[in-house]
Specification:
There is one protein chain. The chain is an alpha+beta fold and 377 residues long. It has 11 helices and 9 strands. The relative contact order is 0.11. α7 packs antiparallel against α10 and α9 runs antiparallel to α10. The two termini are 27 Å apart. It folds into 3 domains: 112 residues, Acyl-CoA dehydrogenase/oxidase, N-terminal domain (Butyryl-Coa Dehydrogenase, subunit A, domain 1, Orthogonal Bundle), CATH 1.10.540.10; 100 residues, Butyryl-CoA Dehydrogenase, subunit A, domain 2 (Beta Barrel); 147 residues, Butyryl-CoA Dehydrogenase, subunit A, domain 3 (Up-down Bundle), CATH 1.20.140. β2 and β3 form a beta hairpin.
Length: 377
Amino acid sequence: MNFALSEEQQMLQASANEFVKRESSLKRIRELREDEAGFSRELWGKMAELGWHGVLFPEEHGGLGEGMVEMIVVLEELGRGLMPEPVISTVLMGGGALLLGGSAEQKSTWLPGVIDGEKFLSFGYMERQSRYNPFDVTTTAKKDGEGWVLDGEKMFVPDAGVSERIIVTARSAGDRRSREGVEMFLVDPKASGVSLTSIPTMDWRKQYVVKLDGVKVDEADRLSGGDSGVALEGTLDRATVGLAAEMLGGMNEAFNMTMEYLKTRQQFGVPIGSFQALKHRAADEYVQTELSRSSIYYAAMTIDENMPDMQRAVSTAKARCNDAFHLIGNESIQMHGGIGVTDEHDIGFYFKRGRVAAVTLGDSEYHRDRYARLKEY
Protein backbone atom coordinates (compact mmCIF):
# COMPACT_ATOMS: atom_id res chain seq x y z
CA MET A 1 0.00 0.00 0.00
CA ASN A 2 1.43 3.36 -1.08
CA PHE A 3 1.20 6.01 1.64
CA ALA A 4 2.74 8.75 -0.50
CA LEU A 5 0.42 11.53 -1.64
CA SER A 6 -0.21 11.89 -5.35
CA GLU A 7 0.66 15.14 -7.13
CA GLU A 8 -2.99 16.23 -6.98
CA GLN A 9 -3.21 15.45 -3.27
CA GLN A 10 -0.01 17.40 -2.61
CA MET A 11 -1.49 20.39 -4.43
CA LEU A 12 -4.64 20.10 -2.34
CA GLN A 13 -2.55 19.96 0.83
CA ALA A 14 -0.51 23.00 -0.19
CA SER A 15 -3.60 25.06 -1.03
CA ALA A 16 -5.26 24.15 2.28
CA ASN A 17 -2.10 25.01 4.19
CA GLU A 18 -1.84 28.39 2.48
CA PHE A 19 -5.53 29.08 3.04
CA VAL A 20 -5.27 28.47 6.78
CA LYS A 21 -2.18 30.67 7.09
CA ARG A 22 -3.81 33.47 5.09
CA GLU A 23 -7.34 33.40 6.44
CA SER A 24 -7.23 32.14 10.02
CA SER A 25 -5.01 33.15 12.93
CA LEU A 26 -5.31 32.27 16.59
CA LYS A 27 -6.33 35.89 17.11
CA ARG A 28 -9.45 35.03 15.10
CA ILE A 29 -10.00 31.93 17.24
CA ARG A 30 -9.85 34.08 20.36
CA GLU A 31 -12.48 36.44 18.98
CA LEU A 32 -14.78 33.58 18.01
CA ARG A 33 -15.00 32.46 21.64
CA GLU A 34 -17.62 35.16 22.13
CA ASP A 35 -19.40 34.54 18.83
CA GLU A 36 -22.84 32.91 18.98
CA ALA A 37 -22.18 30.63 16.02
CA GLY A 38 -18.58 29.96 16.99
CA PHE A 39 -17.25 30.17 13.44
CA SER A 40 -17.13 32.48 10.41
CA ARG A 41 -19.87 32.08 7.80
CA GLU A 42 -17.78 34.14 5.41
CA LEU A 43 -14.86 31.75 5.74
CA TRP A 44 -17.22 28.79 5.43
CA GLY A 45 -18.34 30.19 2.08
CA LYS A 46 -14.76 30.54 0.89
CA MET A 47 -14.08 26.94 1.84
CA ALA A 48 -17.13 25.89 -0.20
CA GLU A 49 -15.80 27.81 -3.21
CA LEU A 50 -12.60 25.78 -2.97
CA GLY A 51 -14.71 22.62 -3.18
CA TRP A 52 -13.76 21.20 0.21
CA HIS A 53 -17.34 20.56 1.34
CA GLY A 54 -17.94 18.42 -1.72
CA VAL A 55 -14.83 16.24 -1.62
CA LEU A 56 -16.69 13.09 -0.54
CA PHE A 57 -19.95 13.63 -2.39
CA PRO A 58 -20.80 12.36 -5.90
CA GLU A 59 -20.64 14.67 -8.88
CA GLU A 60 -24.37 14.22 -9.47
CA HIS A 61 -25.00 16.33 -6.36
CA GLY A 62 -22.32 18.88 -7.19
CA GLY A 63 -19.47 17.21 -5.33
CA LEU A 64 -15.98 16.21 -6.42
CA GLY A 65 -16.42 12.46 -6.04
CA GLU A 66 -13.05 12.03 -4.30
CA GLY A 67 -12.18 9.85 -1.31
CA MET A 68 -11.46 9.94 2.39
CA VAL A 69 -7.74 10.44 1.81
CA GLU A 70 -8.42 13.77 0.08
CA MET A 71 -10.72 14.75 2.94
CA ILE A 72 -8.14 14.10 5.64
CA VAL A 73 -5.51 16.04 3.68
CA VAL A 74 -7.73 19.12 4.09
CA LEU A 75 -8.72 18.39 7.68
CA GLU A 76 -5.14 18.02 8.83
CA GLU A 77 -4.41 21.55 7.66
CA LEU A 78 -7.58 22.90 9.26
CA GLY A 79 -6.46 21.26 12.49
CA ARG A 80 -3.16 23.14 12.38
CA GLY A 81 -5.10 26.37 12.64
CA LEU A 82 -7.69 25.02 15.11
CA MET A 83 -10.35 26.18 12.68
CA PRO A 84 -13.83 25.68 14.22
CA GLU A 85 -15.81 25.75 10.97
CA PRO A 86 -18.26 22.80 11.07
CA VAL A 87 -16.71 20.39 8.58
CA ILE A 88 -17.03 17.42 10.94
CA SER A 89 -20.63 18.13 11.97
CA THR A 90 -22.12 19.31 8.66
CA VAL A 91 -20.08 17.50 6.01
CA LEU A 92 -18.94 14.25 7.63
CA MET A 93 -21.71 13.62 10.15
CA GLY A 94 -24.86 15.23 8.79
CA GLY A 95 -23.94 15.02 5.12
CA GLY A 96 -22.33 11.63 5.61
CA ALA A 97 -25.49 10.18 7.16
CA LEU A 98 -27.52 11.37 4.18
CA LEU A 99 -24.96 10.04 1.72
CA LEU A 100 -24.92 6.58 3.29
CA GLY A 101 -28.48 6.28 4.54
CA GLY A 102 -30.65 8.90 2.90
CA SER A 103 -33.19 8.44 0.13
CA ALA A 104 -32.59 9.85 -3.34
CA GLU A 105 -34.99 12.68 -2.59
CA GLN A 106 -33.30 13.53 0.72
CA LYS A 107 -29.89 13.60 -0.96
CA SER A 108 -31.05 15.87 -3.76
CA THR A 109 -32.77 18.17 -1.26
CA TRP A 110 -29.88 18.62 1.18
CA LEU A 111 -26.52 17.64 -0.28
CA PRO A 112 -26.21 20.40 -2.92
CA GLY A 113 -26.79 23.00 -0.20
CA VAL A 114 -24.18 21.39 2.05
CA ILE A 115 -21.67 21.35 -0.80
CA ASP A 116 -22.38 25.00 -1.67
CA GLY A 117 -21.98 26.03 1.97
CA GLU A 118 -25.57 27.25 2.21
CA LYS A 119 -27.01 24.58 4.51
CA PHE A 120 -25.82 23.35 7.88
CA LEU A 121 -26.56 19.94 9.35
CA SER A 122 -25.74 18.20 12.59
CA PHE A 123 -25.91 14.69 13.97
CA GLY A 124 -27.10 13.50 17.38
CA TYR A 125 -26.43 9.95 18.45
CA MET A 126 -24.98 10.07 21.98
CA GLU A 127 -27.18 9.70 25.05
CA ARG A 128 -26.44 10.02 28.76
CA GLN A 129 -26.10 6.27 29.27
CA SER A 130 -24.67 5.24 25.90
CA ARG A 131 -20.93 6.00 26.31
CA TYR A 132 -20.25 6.14 22.55
CA ASN A 133 -22.25 3.00 21.71
CA PRO A 134 -24.37 4.19 18.75
CA PHE A 135 -26.88 1.38 19.28
CA ASP A 136 -27.50 2.13 22.98
CA VAL A 137 -30.57 4.20 22.16
CA THR A 138 -33.46 5.03 24.49
CA THR A 139 -34.87 7.85 22.34
CA THR A 140 -38.07 6.41 20.89
CA ALA A 141 -39.71 6.70 17.50
CA LYS A 142 -43.38 5.70 17.55
CA LYS A 143 -45.53 5.42 14.46
CA ASP A 144 -48.27 8.03 14.36
CA GLY A 145 -50.49 7.69 11.32
CA GLU A 146 -48.30 8.38 8.31
CA GLY A 147 -45.58 9.99 10.44
CA TRP A 148 -43.57 9.47 13.63
CA VAL A 149 -43.36 10.90 17.13
CA LEU A 150 -39.90 11.24 18.71
CA ASP A 151 -39.18 11.39 22.45
CA GLY A 152 -35.78 11.45 24.10
CA GLU A 153 -32.56 13.39 24.55
CA LYS A 154 -29.26 13.63 22.68
CA MET A 155 -26.01 14.80 24.25
CA PHE A 156 -23.06 16.70 22.78
CA VAL A 157 -24.67 17.48 19.44
CA PRO A 158 -22.15 19.68 17.58
CA ASP A 159 -23.22 22.99 16.03
CA ALA A 160 -26.92 22.23 16.53
CA GLY A 161 -27.61 25.92 17.13
CA VAL A 162 -26.89 26.85 13.50
CA SER A 163 -28.22 23.73 11.79
CA GLU A 164 -31.25 23.69 9.51
CA ARG A 165 -31.72 20.01 10.36
CA ILE A 166 -30.38 17.67 13.03
CA ILE A 167 -30.20 14.00 12.12
CA VAL A 168 -31.01 12.03 15.26
CA THR A 169 -31.11 8.33 16.03
CA ALA A 170 -34.24 6.84 17.60
CA ARG A 171 -35.44 3.35 18.38
CA SER A 172 -38.55 2.06 16.65
CA ALA A 173 -38.15 -1.56 17.78
CA GLY A 174 -35.87 -3.93 19.68
CA ASP A 175 -34.17 -3.83 23.06
CA ARG A 176 -32.16 -0.88 24.33
CA ARG A 177 -28.80 -1.98 22.90
CA SER A 178 -29.93 -4.09 19.97
CA ARG A 179 -28.69 -3.17 16.52
CA GLU A 180 -32.10 -3.75 14.95
CA GLY A 181 -34.72 -1.06 15.21
CA VAL A 182 -32.49 2.03 15.27
CA GLU A 183 -33.66 4.61 12.73
CA MET A 184 -32.35 8.04 11.72
CA PHE A 185 -34.60 11.08 11.28
CA LEU A 186 -34.22 14.63 10.00
CA VAL A 187 -35.45 16.97 12.72
CA ASP A 188 -36.08 20.69 12.39
CA PRO A 189 -34.52 22.30 15.52
CA LYS A 190 -37.27 24.94 15.42
CA ALA A 191 -40.08 22.37 15.45
CA SER A 192 -42.51 22.14 18.33
CA GLY A 193 -41.14 19.98 21.13
CA VAL A 194 -37.45 20.51 20.28
CA SER A 195 -35.27 22.37 22.77
CA LEU A 196 -31.54 23.10 22.61
CA THR A 197 -29.29 23.78 25.59
CA SER A 198 -25.70 24.90 25.05
CA ILE A 199 -22.95 22.94 26.82
CA PRO A 200 -19.81 24.88 27.89
CA THR A 201 -16.68 23.19 26.55
CA MET A 202 -12.98 23.59 27.27
CA ASP A 203 -12.18 24.43 23.64
CA TRP A 204 -15.20 26.73 23.10
CA ARG A 205 -16.63 24.59 20.29
CA LYS A 206 -20.42 24.69 20.23
CA GLN A 207 -22.07 21.56 21.67
CA TYR A 208 -25.70 21.12 22.68
CA VAL A 209 -28.16 18.95 24.53
CA VAL A 210 -31.11 18.34 22.21
CA LYS A 211 -34.38 17.34 23.89
CA LEU A 212 -37.21 15.83 21.89
CA ASP A 213 -40.61 16.00 23.57
CA GLY A 214 -43.35 14.57 21.36
CA VAL A 215 -41.72 15.88 18.19
CA LYS A 216 -43.72 14.99 15.08
CA VAL A 217 -41.87 14.18 11.87
CA ASP A 218 -43.10 12.96 8.51
CA GLU A 219 -42.23 9.61 6.97
CA ALA A 220 -40.27 11.59 4.39
CA ASP A 221 -37.96 12.70 7.23
CA ARG A 222 -36.90 9.13 8.01
CA LEU A 223 -33.63 8.17 6.35
CA SER A 224 -34.76 5.25 4.24
CA GLY A 225 -32.02 4.74 1.69
CA GLY A 226 -30.65 1.49 3.07
CA ASP A 227 -29.68 -0.41 6.22
CA SER A 228 -29.77 2.26 8.93
CA GLY A 229 -27.31 0.35 11.15
CA VAL A 230 -24.70 0.15 8.41
CA ALA A 231 -25.23 3.81 7.54
CA LEU A 232 -24.93 4.84 11.19
CA GLU A 233 -21.66 3.00 11.73
CA GLY A 234 -20.26 4.17 8.40
CA THR A 235 -21.09 7.79 9.22
CA LEU A 236 -19.37 7.64 12.58
CA ASP A 237 -16.31 5.84 11.18
CA ARG A 238 -15.79 8.51 8.53
CA ALA A 239 -16.30 11.30 11.02
CA THR A 240 -13.89 9.62 13.43
CA VAL A 241 -11.11 9.43 10.84
CA GLY A 242 -11.79 13.04 9.89
CA LEU A 243 -11.52 14.14 13.52
CA ALA A 244 -8.32 12.13 13.92
CA ALA A 245 -6.85 13.97 10.92
CA GLU A 246 -7.78 17.30 12.49
CA MET A 247 -6.10 16.14 15.71
CA LEU A 248 -2.97 15.22 13.75
CA GLY A 249 -2.76 18.75 12.41
CA GLY A 250 -3.24 20.19 15.88
CA MET A 251 -0.64 18.00 17.56
CA ASN A 252 1.87 18.71 14.78
CA GLU A 253 1.41 22.45 15.16
CA ALA A 254 1.77 22.19 18.96
CA PHE A 255 4.94 20.15 18.46
CA ASN A 256 6.39 22.69 16.01
CA MET A 257 5.58 25.59 18.34
CA THR A 258 7.30 23.80 21.19
CA MET A 259 10.38 22.99 19.11
CA GLU A 260 10.67 26.64 18.17
CA TYR A 261 10.43 27.60 21.84
CA LEU A 262 13.16 25.10 22.79
CA LYS A 263 15.47 26.71 20.22
CA THR A 264 14.93 30.28 21.49
CA ARG A 265 14.35 29.99 25.24
CA GLN A 266 17.67 30.15 27.05
CA GLN A 267 18.73 28.95 30.47
CA PHE A 268 22.27 28.97 31.89
CA GLY A 269 23.31 30.76 28.71
CA VAL A 270 22.21 28.05 26.26
CA PRO A 271 18.94 27.13 24.50
CA ILE A 272 16.96 24.71 26.63
CA GLY A 273 16.56 22.51 23.56
CA SER A 274 20.21 21.54 23.99
CA PHE A 275 19.41 19.67 27.22
CA GLN A 276 19.51 15.93 26.62
CA ALA A 277 16.39 15.17 28.67
CA LEU A 278 14.31 17.57 26.58
CA LYS A 279 15.76 16.15 23.36
CA HIS A 280 14.58 12.68 24.36
CA ARG A 281 11.10 13.94 25.18
CA ALA A 282 10.89 15.84 21.90
CA ALA A 283 11.99 12.76 19.98
CA ASP A 284 9.22 10.74 21.62
CA GLU A 285 6.66 13.36 20.59
CA TYR A 286 7.85 13.21 16.99
CA VAL A 287 7.57 9.42 16.93
CA GLN A 288 4.01 9.63 18.25
CA THR A 289 2.96 12.08 15.53
CA GLU A 290 4.38 9.86 12.80
CA LEU A 291 2.71 6.74 14.20
CA SER A 292 -0.55 8.70 14.27
CA ARG A 293 -0.10 9.82 10.68
CA SER A 294 0.42 6.27 9.43
CA SER A 295 -2.62 4.95 11.28
CA ILE A 296 -4.86 7.76 10.00
CA TYR A 297 -3.86 7.38 6.36
CA TYR A 298 -4.25 3.64 6.53
CA ALA A 299 -7.73 4.03 8.06
CA ALA A 300 -8.72 6.47 5.30
CA MET A 301 -7.48 4.06 2.64
CA THR A 302 -9.46 1.18 4.14
CA ILE A 303 -12.59 3.33 3.90
CA ASP A 304 -11.91 4.26 0.28
CA GLU A 305 -11.21 0.64 -0.64
CA ASN A 306 -13.93 -0.82 1.63
CA MET A 307 -11.40 -3.21 3.14
CA PRO A 308 -12.40 -5.92 5.66
CA ASP A 309 -10.40 -4.40 8.52
CA MET A 310 -11.85 -0.90 8.07
CA GLN A 311 -13.49 -0.63 11.48
CA ARG A 312 -10.42 -1.96 13.28
CA ALA A 313 -8.25 0.54 11.40
CA VAL A 314 -10.57 3.41 12.36
CA SER A 315 -10.46 2.52 16.06
CA THR A 316 -6.68 2.07 15.92
CA ALA A 317 -6.27 5.55 14.43
CA LYS A 318 -8.52 7.28 16.95
CA ALA A 319 -6.99 5.54 19.99
CA ARG A 320 -3.52 6.36 18.70
CA CYS A 321 -4.37 10.04 18.13
CA ASN A 322 -6.07 10.36 21.51
CA ASP A 323 -2.93 9.15 23.27
CA ALA A 324 -0.53 11.13 21.09
CA PHE A 325 -2.37 14.46 21.44
CA HIS A 326 -2.64 13.87 25.19
CA LEU A 327 1.12 13.36 25.43
CA ILE A 328 2.03 16.26 23.14
CA GLY A 329 -0.40 18.58 24.89
CA ASN A 330 1.12 17.75 28.26
CA GLU A 331 4.71 18.01 27.05
CA SER A 332 4.05 21.29 25.26
CA ILE A 333 2.73 22.87 28.44
CA GLN A 334 5.57 21.41 30.51
CA MET A 335 8.28 22.61 28.15
CA HIS A 336 6.83 26.10 27.90
CA GLY A 337 6.59 26.33 31.67
CA GLY A 338 4.10 28.55 33.48
CA ILE A 339 3.42 30.76 30.47
CA GLY A 340 1.98 27.73 28.68
CA VAL A 341 -1.13 27.69 30.85
CA THR A 342 -1.90 31.37 30.45
CA ASP A 343 -4.58 32.59 28.07
CA GLU A 344 -2.08 34.97 26.50
CA HIS A 345 -0.02 32.13 25.04
CA ASP A 346 -1.25 30.16 22.03
CA ILE A 347 -0.03 26.72 23.12
CA GLY A 348 -2.83 26.34 25.66
CA PHE A 349 -5.40 26.39 22.85
CA TYR A 350 -3.93 23.21 21.41
CA PHE A 351 -3.82 21.54 24.82
CA LYS A 352 -7.52 22.26 25.35
CA ARG A 353 -8.57 21.22 21.86
CA GLY A 354 -6.68 17.97 22.29
CA ARG A 355 -8.49 17.17 25.51
CA VAL A 356 -11.94 17.71 23.99
CA ALA A 357 -11.17 15.92 20.72
CA ALA A 358 -9.89 12.89 22.63
CA VAL A 359 -13.31 12.31 24.21
CA THR A 360 -15.27 13.09 21.04
CA LEU A 361 -16.44 10.17 18.89
CA GLY A 362 -14.87 7.69 21.28
CA ASP A 363 -12.06 7.88 23.83
CA SER A 364 -9.07 5.52 23.86
CA GLU A 365 -10.72 3.00 26.16
CA TYR A 366 -13.79 2.74 23.95
CA HIS A 367 -11.82 2.26 20.74
CA ARG A 368 -9.45 -0.31 22.26
CA ASP A 369 -12.45 -2.23 23.52
CA ARG A 370 -14.10 -1.96 20.10
CA TYR A 371 -10.95 -3.24 18.43
CA ALA A 372 -10.87 -6.21 20.80
CA ARG A 373 -14.53 -7.01 20.14
CA LEU A 374 -14.00 -6.83 16.39
CA LYS A 375 -11.08 -9.23 16.73
CA GLU A 376 -13.25 -11.44 18.99
CA TYR A 377 -10.76 -11.32 21.84
